[in-house]
Amino acid sequence: MVVLIVASQKELSRIWARHLERLGHPVTIVHSQQAAVAYLRLRTVDVIVLDLTLDGGSAFAVADYASYRRPDAKVVFVTNTTFFSDGSIFKHIPNAAAIVQEKTPPNDLAAIVEYHGRAV
User: Fold this and answer.
1) Res 83 pLDDT > 70
2) Main-chain dihedrals φ then ψ at residue 33, nearest 5 degrees
3) Phi-psi bin for 24: left (phi > 0), alpha (psi -120 to 50), beta?
4) Which strands sit side by side in the sheet containing 47-51, from one edge to the other?
5) What is the DSSP secondary-structure string of 92-118?
6) Alpha carbons 14 and 11: distance in angstroms, whole number
7) Dihedral sign, Cα of residue 15, residue 87, residue 31, residue 73
8) What digits encode the pLDDT tens for the residues 20-29?
9) Domains in the chain, please, with CATH?
């Protein structure tokens, strides 16, 4: 299972990546919409861990591009807000698999990613 992490916080994204790598999954980290789209243009991924409040662009643009270019890729959104806590994100983003709080323990996030990656 190949994982792409698109997140603004570099240290936090490295922590998430280490937990996923310990489970044997190759992980690439990028920090902007532009870098994520460039990566998805050329490479296949199974799961995208996507910071909903991405500083370097729009998380929705990344998810939208992924649904077009990599329709089988599942998107696990991570957020530090309560916006979309009603689950409405699943109505807007067809490849959304989960939305979790940024405070979620990294091993729990890794388990969620692994679960959704197996469904691909």
Assistant:
1) no
2) -60, -45
3) left
4) 27-30, 3-6, 47-51, 74-79, 96-101
5) H-TTEEEEEETTS-HHHHHHHHHHHHH
6) 5
7) positive
8) 999 999 999 9
9) 3-118 (3.40.50.2300)
